[in-house]
């Protein structure tokens, strides 16, 4: 079938709207009509580099939609099911899945090329086989996914905010709760309060933190963080470091989550200055270019104060466990989703959506297919 989608032809290019061919689902594969796609900074990173990946590639990894058809042997979903895409597939049987760390599933090896675990390329453009970013391709109206990359959700749940469960909500929430290990009474600093950071604030609150300090140079994002539970909001990591020590009688933060849209060595160094003894620095943010050095720390301080440096992929969440749980929290009024969506865009407004994101005017922009 034919569909419309946004493609990156090469490093440094802009997303281009094209007509794509999508194949019928083969064994283990699922054809999804995408309804919504979140505008995540990772899709902007893809414009700058795709280390170990492949261009051209169809963008978008944060999406929700409806299953149109399934291939032979598919048991997780059926036609008509509402689904959230998981940008990290979960086979359920590899070492990582079996030990509760499905965000590190071995099937994720091809998220950069976008080739499905079955060996299928989900799209064709002018006769050329194309992959989908993170094996999702949510910037296309229709996409072919592996069944390990879809999570069935209840049909009464809104598909628009459900799209955020594909990345930003679990990534931020889990960065504070799982990767950071926030405990009751902790002081948490969240550096960068866009789509991921705002949810790290919510996660820290849920975990019982006494103080949650939101850090962002953009006043709009600081103010939003205060509405979802931050106890304090400042413009720089330097201010946050001083405040964290004041709040903790001189120690510093127990957990610091680095959730900038794009990070570098200096940003990491400044974030680490917020840590107190025994504190954990959670590295959730990525650099635009994957080979850039983003970690620059004084080793003696790390040793003397027993600081812990923790990477966080998808917030160390288990998609099939945590997406339903977070949706339930939202339905019960215990997690804010609706106000995370600042603006909505049609596919031909994709460039504007990313421009608004770069200007700090959105918490999350949402692409509306067919809108």
UniProtKB/TrEMBL annotation:
The keyword Transferase does not apply. It is an enzyme of class 1 (oxidoreductase). Keywords: Metal-binding, Oxidoreductase, Zinc. Its EC number is 1.1.99.36. Its cofactor is Zn(2+). It comes from the Bacteria. The keyword Transmembrane does not apply. GO terms for molecular function: oxidoreductase activity. Residues 10-367 form the Enoyl reductase (ER) domain. PANTHER family: NAD-DEPENDENT ALCOHOL DEHYDROGENASE, S-NITROSOMYCOTHIOL REDUCTASE MSCR. Belongs to the zinc-containing alcohol dehydrogenase family. This is NDMA-dependent alcohol dehydrogenase. It comes from Klenkia sesuvii.
């Amino acid at each position: 079938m034919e569909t419309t989608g946004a493609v990156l032809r090469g490093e440094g290019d802009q997303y281009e709207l094209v007509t794509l061919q999508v194949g019928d689902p083969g064994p283990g594969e699922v054809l999804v009509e995408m309804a919504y796609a979140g505008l995540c900074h990772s899709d902007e990173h893809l414009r700058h580099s795709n280390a170990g990946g492949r261009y051209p590639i169809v963008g978008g990894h944060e999406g929700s939609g409806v299953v149109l058809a399934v291939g032979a042997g598919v048991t997780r979903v059926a036609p008509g099911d509402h689904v959230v895409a998981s940008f990290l597939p979960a086979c359920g049987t590899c070492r990582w899945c079996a030990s509760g760390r499905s965000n590190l599933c071995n099937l994720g090896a091809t998220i950069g090329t976008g080739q499905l675990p079955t060996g299928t390329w989900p799209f064709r453009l002018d006769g050329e086989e194309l992959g989908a970013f993170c094996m999702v391709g949510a910037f296309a109206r229709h996409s072919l996914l592996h069944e390990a990359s879809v999570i069935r959700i209840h049909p009464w749940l809104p598909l628009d905010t459900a799209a955020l469960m594909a990345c930003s909500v679990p990534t931020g929430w889990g960065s504070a709760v799982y990767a950071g290990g926030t405990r009751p009474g902790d002081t948490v600093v969240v550096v960068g309060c866009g789509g991921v950071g705002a949810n790290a604030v919510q996660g820290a609150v849920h975990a019982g933190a006494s103080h949650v300090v939101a850090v962002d140079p953009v006043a709009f994002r600081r103010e939003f963080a205060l509405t979802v539970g931050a106890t304090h909001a400042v413009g720089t990591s330097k201010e946050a470091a001083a405040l964290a020590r004041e709040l903790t009688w001189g120690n510093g933060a127990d957990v610091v989550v680095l959730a900038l849209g794009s990070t570098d060595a200096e940003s990491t160094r400044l974030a680490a200055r917020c840590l107190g003894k025994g504190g954990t620095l959670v590295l959730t943010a990525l650099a635009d270019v994957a080979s850039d050095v983003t970690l620059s720390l004084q080793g003696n301080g790390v040793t003397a104060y027993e600081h812990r440096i923790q990477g966080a992929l998808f917030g160390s969440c288990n998609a099939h466990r945590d997406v339903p749980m977070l949706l339930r929290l939202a339905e019960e009024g215990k997690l804010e989703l609706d106000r995370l969506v600042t603006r909505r865009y049609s596919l031909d407004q994709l460039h504007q959506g990313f421009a608004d994101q770069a200007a700090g005017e959105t918490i999350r922009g949402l692409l509306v297919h067919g809108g």
